């Protein structure tokens, strides 16, 4: 059975955030709002939840998953980044951007691109997501909620619940959000290269 929480978009209720975090820690798969549509999230070490995400989105093995972090202090543990790249990240976080970086040994192989050994890193700019991450105390393994054959992220929590009831454990209703996916920026060569244009201001990286 899928739970459905109504959470205040600007002042998330601590009790509901704690219950959502408990769901994640117990192996649950959640849907939560970000500054670029809703996202699917689970515990970084949970293979079963990851497999459920792959099934819902029909993802290929080459898909780059994202670690959604509360701030850049967690970056060094999960990604390798030089000073120039760090400055780019710092000037664009929090925000609707996903940065592709080389994964550190701390990142499970199943989350990395199988050939490039990369991982996406993102710091969202929305109170509910940041409250979840603060309470969890570690990144969420995450991916935008884009259903097969769709280009936009899902933005209506009622529609999400209707379509994913029984397939996820919890939908956090934070109201309607922007339906543009994140702008994805490849930082592997030490300078930004936009590989997916989406929310925010991608032109800043040109």
What features would you describe in this structure?
Helix content is 26%, strand content 24%. Strand 2 (30-34) and strand 3 (37-43) form a beta hairpin. The protein is an alpha/beta fold. The longest helix is centred in the N-terminal third of the chain and has 12 residues, at 14-25. Helix 1 (14-25) crosses helix 5 (127-136). Strands 1, 2, 3, 4, 5, 6, 7, 8, 9, 10 and 11 form an eleven-stranded mixed beta sheet that branches. It has a single domain, classed as DHBP synthase (Alpha-Beta Complex), CATH 3.90.870.10. The protein has six helices and eleven strands.
Question: Can you describe this structure in just a few lines?
Answer:
The chain has helices spanning 14-25, 47-57, 75-78, 83-91, 127-136, 157-164, and strands spanning 3-6, 30-34, 37-43, 66-68, 79-80, 97-103, 118-122, 140-144, 170-173, 183-186, 193-196. With 206 residues, it is of the alpha/beta class. It has a single domain (3-205), classed as DHBP synthase, CATH 3.90.870.10.
Helicity level, as a percent range? 25-40%
Name the average pLDDT: 90
Shape: globular
Structural class comes to alpha/beta
What CATH calls the topology is DHBP synthase
The CATH architecture comes to: Alpha-Beta Complex
Largest sheet: 11 strands, mixed
**What is the beta-strand fraction?**
15-25%
Poorly predicted runs are none
- Count of discrete structural domains: 1
The CATH homology group name: DHBP synthase
Order of helical and strand elements: EHEEHEHEHEEHEHEEE
Write the layout of secondary structure elements.
Elements: E1 3-6, H1 14-25, E2 30-34, E3 37-43, H2 47-57, E4 66-68, H3 75-78, E5 79-80, H4 83-91, E6 97-103, E7 118-122, H5 127-136, E8 140-144, H6 157-164, E9 170-173, E10 183-186, E11 193-196
Helix pairs in contact: 1-5
